[in-house]
């Protein structure tokens, strides 16, 4: 049973509490376990790895047929940001909706909450492998597509990085929010669709928003993922002005903040509560 | 003794149902306290309040001097929790699960040592999905012990275990309390409470119906004597029963059942009478109340007084 050394001690097993572990260490431990689980789930691997790359390259034909005259964009400046967006949307958002729902229904989240992890650490720690994979994929897709299209490197790197970071943060919170309104693992196969379709159609993932009819384009500019697309595309075109950059970051943060608020309000940690 | 767990008028409400209806309990350091009760009497709901998983509707709860819900960060590193259901990802192995939990626990003991303690050594590479129900319970216990907790909350720790594993778990829990760990457990097994608990409480419909040491709880119940009278003898021929401490009697055919608060006096008087009258009392049986009787009586709802500890 217990080791003799601890068994014979007549004093309490731990007179003084040891130094509290760091949040980083806790999230790393959780992230490592989630990575193992991801690598063991074929369905998740398809969503995370196969879907974004296939979709990114398959849209070439569609983009070729777009009339880009007047938008100031080329096939490359449409496809490169789109490829990164696909990596974010599938690897982070779609994947994590499933992860959060399955862990909740399996009472894993409830179990994790009995320990030292804080609520935010549980959500972020579980998302770590998805985030790393999304980053790796963005790098690979970006590089591969630059070669494939014989395109130039981004003009404004900082906007690409900003777009990726803000996009990932928004989609992690968004996935948690979608999971809050998803009852079962089975319904998690469809509940991600509304946001995904709205984003693909409205936020200018494939076709730039400039191609939408005027009033529709104005409204679409306020959608959550639109500023992320503006930042990513601005990174390649270099024509996103200072005011526009601030507006994009501000709008994305407002949406993310609202989602954080909603998650704190509605996220459920166990299937019973 | 220093109180480690203290509650006052603790209440918990679900939408239209009050599951916990005013619990007062105190558990001292190093004590093992058992919470008994039939299903749905509020044991788990109470435990969740003590673990800080939910906030009480009203009333207060202190664990190690802190509010376990609002001051989670102060309490969690010092407690260990075993839920009624595991909640482990099924595709991780035993070792991977333990390693993950160790990474989330301050001052965690080595994973091998914790698995050894619950006899899961040798099962490290098995996926959780392939474990038996009893093995999962033991894995859960191993994780609860990882952080060398000062206070251990165990929700039905031995449900689903075979007899040998149950005894091993009791041995392990006893070892922990000897070292000064405070343990609060819920159980369906009265024998478990009798074997382990310093004190216990029996819950019924969200309140503590009775509590105290096992001997106290049992002492509140009447003892029983039963025997058969010969066909030519009648109950009325016995000496007056009330002065002997008998509180109730019934007869079914020749069989007589007596309930008494003073077993020795009643038994002595009965046996003296039988000797003097030359009567043979067939099938004579005399015994003190058991915890099971106390429990069954409360579970049947016969107990209405709200004794507190």
Q: How does this structure look, described?
A:
In chain A, 70% of the residues lie in helices and 0% in strands. Chain A is an all-alpha fold and 273 residues long. Chain A is built from twelve helices and no strands. With 309 residues, chain B is α/β, with parallel strands linked by helices. Chain B is built from ten helices and 13 strands. In chain B, strands 5-6-7-3-8-9 form a six-stranded mixed sheet, sandwiched between helices. The longest helix of chain B is centred in the middle third of the chain and has 16 residues, at 163-178. Chain B starts with a strand and ends in a 10-residue tail after the last helix. The model of chain B is unreliable at 302-309 (pLDDT under 50). The chains are: A mainly alpha (273), B alpha/beta (309). Chain A binds chain B through residues 1-3, 6-7, 9-14, 17-21, 25-26, 28-30, 32-33, 36-37, 40-41, 103, 106-118, 273, and chain B through 29-30, 51, 53-54, 72-73, 76-78, 81, 83, 85-92, 96-97, 99-107, 113, 117, 148-150, 168, 171-172, 175-176, 178-181.
Radius of gyration of chain A, in angstroms, nearest whole number: 21 Å
Instruction: Write down how many β-strands of chain B occur, each being a DSSP E stretch of 2 or more residues.
Output: 13
Count of helix runs of chain B: 10
Largest interface: A-B, 42 and 45 residues
How much of the polypeptide of chain A forms β-strand, as a percent range?
Answer: under 5%
Provide the low-confidence segments of chain A as ranges. 1-15
List how many beta strands of chain A DSSP finds: 0
Identify the quaternary structure here. heterodimer
N- and C-termini, Cα separation of chain B: 15 Å
Strand/helix succession of chain B: EEEHEHEHHHEHEHEEHEEEHEH
Shape of chain B: elongated
Indicate the topology.
The complex is a heterodimer of chains A (273) and B (309).
Chain A: H1 4-8, H2 23-39, H3 42-58, H4 60-65, H5 75-105, H6 108-113, H7 119-148, H8 157-180, H9 193-202, H10 214-220, H11 226-237, H12 242-266
Helix pairs in contact in A: 2-7, 3-5, 3-7, 5-7, 5-8, 5-11, 7-8, 8-11, 8-12, 11-12
Chain B: E1 3-14, E2 17-28, E3 32-36, H1 43-51, E4 58-63, H2 72-75, E5 79-82, H3 94-103, H4 111-117, H5 133-145, E6 151-155, H6 163-178, E7 182-187, H7 190-196, E8 199-204, E9 207-212, H8 214-219, E10 223-228, E11 246-252, E12 255-260, H9 263-277, E13 282-287, H10 291-299
Parallel strand pairs in B: 3-7, 3-8, 5-6, 6-7
Antiparallel strand pairs in B: 1-2, 1-4, 8-9, 10-12, 10-13, 11-12
